[in-house]
Specification:
With about 70 residues, this protein is mostly helical. Helices cover about 85% and strands about 0% of the residues. It has 2 helices and no strands.
Amino acid sequence: MKEKFNFIYETVKANMEKLDKKQINVEQAKAMASLAKQANNVLVTQLDASKFLNNVKDAKTYLDEVGL
């Protein structure tokens, strides 16, 4: 997951530099920012799902310990 975050960060950073140097226009930068936001949302969803699954595993262990 860290690699995915770093990829998104580096991509956004490179696009900001291109925008500063006028290598891309504002509309292109907006489109790239939108894609970066979508990719970030996927990462957040994956992280939330992982947290949930870990909590469920722990909950099952505790339930087994008390006989439920």
